[in-house]
């Protein structure tokens, strides 16, 4: 759905989107196997560049960095962009919180405890909301910037482009342009990780989607 500038300011001024740690991998654990455990990309590439489009407050970006560290990647960058500047400010600060994924998610993916810290007392509610601090040397591999993927392509290309739960939201630009801009962000041999496969042309799904 295309929306006016006024409606856009209203929507995106208030809303930062909701996300959680290990978002891509919890929904589809085999993606983690392919990307990290079998060292498929690590063997092939000198460095690994990851982009999360629609990163919200940054948990997915930090998750990729934690997975890279836990699986022995040294030369990697994990970046995130979002149309919402408030979300990007939170992501930059590393002001992430646990959400519905819960604190065990790091153990599930064998993330060493020295790479993150969970502060505060566990609440009783279903959403956790405790603060998570990522180790500085891991954060040093991350970057965040504001960008609207429905209006402009990204300035560089990546080995892995994740775009989950983002494109079906109301957009300022055409949905087809947004899809094309996601595609143009991936390197020729790279992967797209997205739960919006139905929006992409079939040949892109066959060539770039993990299955
Ligand atoms: C529901 S959240 C999902 C966050 C995360 N990707 C996940 O799956 O948990 C959607 C995010 O996409 C962002 N977004 C929506 N349209 C976008 C666009 N055209 N360009 C960049 N970010 C966008 C929103 O601001 C919001 O933070």
TrEMBL record:
GO MF term set: S-adenosylmethionine-dependent methyltransferase activity
InterPro entries: CheR_C, CheR_MeTrfase, SAM-dependent_MTases_sf
Superkingdom, natural source: Bacteria
Domain CheR-type methyltransferase: 16-211
UniProt xrefs under Pfam families: CheR
Protein name: CheR-type methyltransferase domain-containing protein
